[in-house]
Design a protein that fits this description.
Layout lengths: L1 H38 L1 H26 L2 H10 L3 H27 L1 H7 L4 H13 L2 H18 L4 H24 L4 H26 L23 H33 L5 H18 L1 H19 L3 H28 L1 H8 L3 H33 L3 H26 L5 H17 L2 H9 L3 E6 L2 E6 L6
Antiparallel strand pairs: 1-2
GO molecular function: antiporter activity; xenobiotic transmembrane transporter activity
Subcellular location: Membrane
Main location: membrane
């Protein structure tokens, strides 16, 4: 029992600042949306379109690709191999910068693309302005994501939270100054957003350079002289290892992010679409807020599992998994209680429209039910990342949401005519399916059995994953 409490303390020490960062990020997004709302309904519509587009085509991709470095860095920290840590950090930054190039072209040419899809020209023009001025944010995120993961794998999350909070304190006055004082409008909101991320980046770099030890040289040559044929791999093989982890991680994140946008798209075709769309917006804001807890648990357990596997202690990794899943179940119960008992109060925060409020109060308990499955499965995905198996999580997300959930949503919404309940029941069925497909019941046994170990051989992280599911 003392070991369990010690593990819970370690997970919460890593996870609590991540939760706080999620809430701070949520506040930042709210500031941007409120400012665009004060600029006018056209600006709000164009800004909302731009934010959705940038999330789908840019931020989700960079976030997912960066997660590929998690198992490499966490296991390398566990084995005290700092060379692998810094090589992985540099390669991930370079990978994200290269991945940003096609995204830049897409964002820059948003307006002609949307006009070909027969979108409203005025709204499209506003969205295009936002995307063009947000392009520097891709550079900031290409640096920020790897640095955050580097510090998290090191177990240092509190400084990341304080740096983020300090940058957000500047975000509100900068946004008002650019959008209203200088009359830049929506472009001013976009500029303030990437300035906030660059501020966070500068604060983090200052912390890293101020606190680093002589052994922690952030620069390691990307091309090293091989020590021997048996102890090293080719440069292409090392990049291949990172890409084999990064691409499935990217797919897992994108598949999960994109279904929110798909739900919004379906809502636009339902009866009384203005009511359905307004309610779906409230639902997305609610789920975004609720997601801060399971995402923090997922990141925490990924770090803990990776650290322990890198140290050659699979039993400790199993204990971390058990503790994290227990916390996830407890967290999901609180989410259900909140969306059930506090649904009217929460709904009135967003709207005074009786139709929208009535539908919101009806669907929020379903969101709580989704959380019962979503929180444990998100945590299990963290275990999969920490043990270098992100492709399993990507496959589960695809099968659950798109092969099971999507047909259920379309059938319920348009064949059985139950409206917005269809997409939400899709989410519930998808989350439930993921929770069942995710091998959470076997993860602890497989990790504890010593059949998954992160080993350091010749300066390279080699993850041996001979995991057999016992039937």
């Amino acid at each position: 029992m003392p070991e369990v409490w010690e593990e819970l303390k370690r997970i919460t020490d890593i996870g609590f600042p991540i939760v706080a960062m999620g809430l701070v990020g949520y506040l930042k997004n709210m500031i941007s949306v409120v400012c665009m709302g004060r600029l006018g309904s056209l600006e709000l519509a164009g800004g909302a379109l731009a934010i959705g587009f940038t999330n789908i085509t840019g931020y989700s991709v960079l976030t997912g690709l960066a997660m590929g470095m998690e198992p490499l860095c966490s296991q390398a920290f566990g084995s005290r191999n700092l060379t692998i840590v810094f090589l992985t950090l540099q390669r991930t930054i370079l990978m994200l910068l290269l991945a940003s190039l096609p995204i830049v072209l897409l964002w820059f040419n948003l307006e002609p693309l949307m006009l070909r899809l027969h979108q409203n020209p005025d709204i499209t023009h506003i969205a295009s302005l936002y995307c063009r001025f947000a392009i520097p944010d891709l550079i900031a995120n290409s640096l920020l994501h790897p640095l955050r993961i580097y510090l998290r794998c090191k177990g240092t999350t509190w400084p990341v939270m304080w740096c983020t909070l300090l940058a957000i304190l500047f975000h509100l006055p900068i946004t008002f100054f650019l959008a209203f004082t200088l009359c830049l409008g929506v472009p001013g909101v976009a500029v303030s957003s990437f300035l906030s991320n660059f501020n966070t980046l500068f604060f983090l770099l200052g912390y890293i350079f101020y606190t680093r030890t002589p052994k922690e040289t952030l620069w390691t040559p990307l091309v090293q002289q091989p020590m021997s044929l048996s102890s090293t791999t080719s440069l292409g093989g090392e990049w291949g290892m990172l890409l084999r982890l990064a691409v499935p991680s990217c797919l897992a994140v994108c598949l999960e992010w994109w279904w929110y946008e798909f739900m919004t798209l379906l809502a636009g075709y339902l009866y009384k679409p203005h009511v359905a769309l307004a309610t779906s917006a409230i639902v997305i804001q609610t789920t975004s807020l609720m997601y801060t807890l399971p995402s923090a648990l997922s990141a925490s357990v990924s770090t803990r599992v990776g650290n322990e596997l890198g140290s050659g202690r699979p039993g400790k990794a199993s204990l971390a998994t058990t503790a994290a899943i227990g916390l996830a179940l407890l967290t999901s119960m609180f989410g259900l209680l909140w969306t059930t008992l506090g649904r009217e109060v929460w709904g009135r925060v967003f709207t005074k429209d009786n139709e929208v409020l009535e539908l919101t109060m009806a669907v929020l308990p379903i969101i709580g039910l989704c959380e019962l499955a979503n929180c444990p499965q998100t945590t299990c995905c963290g275990v999969l990342r920490g043990s270098a198996r992100p492709s399993v999580g990507a496959a589960i997300n695809f099968y659950s949401f798109y092969l099971v959930g999507a047909p259920v949503a379309i059938s319920l919404a348009f064949v059985w005519k139950i409206g917005l309940f269809g997409p939400l029941l899709w989410a519930f069925s998808g989350s439930s399916c993921m929770c069942n497909l995710n091998p959470s019941s076997n993860i602890q046994h497989r990790l504890g059995g010593g059949v998954s170990k992160g080993q350091i051989l010749g300066g390279r992280v080699v993850v041996h994953l001979h995991m057999q599911i016992k039937q």
